[in-house]
Each structure stands twice: as C-alpha cells, then as structure tokens.
Predict the structure of Phosphoribosyltransferase family protein.
Amino acid sequence: MKRFANRQEAGRALAARLADHAWHDPLVLGLPRGGVPVAKEVADQLDAELDVVVARKIGAPGHPEYGVGAVTADSEPIYDPAVLRALNLTEEQLSRTCDEERQEAARRTALYRGDRPPPHISDRDVIVVDDGLATGVTARAALHWVARHAPQHLVLAVPVAARESMTTFDTPVVAVLVPRNFGAVSRWYDRFDQTTDAEVLSALA
C-alpha cells in the first residue's frame, strides 16, 4: 500500500477525496499540531475557512503517552470506558491530569488564534482534520466540542486510519488509506517530523 511523502501530500490526497461533495459554507478545523498542515491543503482545495480545534490527550498515570481520554479548553472530557476498566482507573483519579490538559488546550488555542474570534460553526459543514486516526481519542473530544455548536454537517477526515477505530465513531469518517495492518500513523509517511507551533501559525496566517 502506498505511503505519503509528507503531510502536505497527504492533505492534497485527502482534499481530492473530499472535493466531489457539495459542501455548504465549509469550515476546516485542523487538530494541532500535526493535523494543521494537512488541514491547510484541504481548506485551500475546498476554498474553505481554516481554523483549529485543540484537543489534548489525557494520559494514563505513569504513561502519559497512553491516551485514556481527551479534553478541549471548554468541554467535558471524553474517556474510553473500556480502557478505564482495563486499567482499573476512575475519572476522579484523572481529574488533576484532565485539568492540566484543559489549561494547556486553552493556552494553545489562545496562541494559535491570537486576537481572531472563534470561527462561526452553526449551520455550516465542518470538516475536522488530523494527520491520522489511531485510537481516535483526541479526535473524539474535538468532534464532541464541534457538535455542541450545531454544525449542519460534521465529518472527520484523515489521510490514514486504523480500520477498528473508524467503526467506533458515530460521526462519518473519511480516510484515503485504511491499511489492514495499521501499526502507527508515522508508518504511512516518508517524513513525519514534529510539527512546530511556528508551522501551525504560518498555516493559519
């Protein structure tokens, strides 16, 4: 199965997949940081407004890279109940980590948006974009936040997705690649460098 050279190529491939739909006043929201370069290509192709939705992973105690949930700056956290049960964790035990990640989401939102007002979402078609879908925990929190603002139509769009994760979403998921053996998002890119804040701000400028 093919790979993407970088996030820009992945974004163009994703834009081509989305281009045959008639979008109503489309808004493309990238998940920082890695989703924003992909989202910029999509927004350019669809002649859509580009902005961000910041969701932060809530990591397991002692294993911050292992996401058990996620939160945005101003919404309730979304947890994976099966993972909480498997790790014998409660939401109360994670409340401090959740608060820290909520504050970080607020800080990053302010950094990326600057003095621009938040995008208008109501009655628009909204496409939430990331550079890949593994467990989908941060995407789920982002979609939950967008859904609260009454979009007309909401989709999650990614260049590459794990098949088993796609099936767990109520929101439609559009993916260019759905490999049988997913592994990790980085496997499907020749270059998968860390996206910097400067690159996010440049894309949004």
Residues 95-113 form the longest helix (19 residues).
